[in-house]
Design goal:
By secondary structure, the protein is mostly helical. Helices cover 57% and strands 5% of the residues. The protein is built from five helices and four strands; from the N terminus they run ββαααβααβ. The relative contact order is 0.15.
């Protein structure tokens, strides 16, 4: 593989635009860039989560997700490439299977839970909320441009998976979830 980037500071974005993969330029606050940025932020949050000591199965799944999210960002960077989708029903089904597996031995929820518990579970909850934002940005982009609808479904399942992973991380560490107290005194 040759050098992808030889110069990092190009100054080409100083006017409020950024380059896309097809060579075109667009505003840095355009819906496409908002979606790409939210997915990048999600990927960074997953990187932070992966810096924790995680069980191998969770670590492996999150690593695969990181690579897929990078692929989604690459797909979004190429407007008009609707024929080439990196997320399909297969990847969504993979998340659903992981969700079922990780949720199987968790106690049923009888109350809302707050983000927290162990540092890893809290990082997982943070990634979950960023995932929800990325999903909203992709929905917004889909209102003005053609996108792969499977990307929205993937992010929706991923946020559910991150919620269950956070609960599982607390359980494995011997911590209980942080329950919302609706009648605080």
């Amino acid at each position: 593989m040759g050098n992808r980037l030889t110069k990092i500071c190009t100054r080409t974005g100083d006017n409020g635009t950024t380059g896309l993969g097809d060579g075109s330029r667009t505003d840095k606050d355009a819906p496409r860039i908002e979606a790409i940025g939210a997915i990048d932020e999600l990927n960074s949050a997953l990187g932070l989560l992966l810096s924790h000591d995680l069980p191998g199965s969770i670590q492996d799944r999150l690593s695969r997700v990181q690579h897929r999210l990078f692929d989604v960002g690459g797909e979004l960077c190429l407007p008009g490439q609707a024929a080439h989708h990196v997320i399909s029903s297969e990847q969504i089904e993979e998340l659903e299977a992981a969700l079922e597996e990780l949720n199987a031995d968790l106690p049923p929820l009888r109350e809302f839970i707050l983000p927290g518990g162990t540092p890893a579970a809290a990082a997982c909850h943070l990634a979950r909320t960023i995932c929800r934002r990325a999903e909203r940005r992709l929905v917004s982009l889909g209102k003005v441009e053609d996108i792969n609808p499977a990307g929205i479904m993937y992010l929706n399942r991923l946020s559910d998976l991150l919620f269950v992973m956070a609960r599982q991380l607390n359980r494995l560490a011997g911590k209980t979830d942080v329950y919302w107290q609706h009648e605080r005194k």
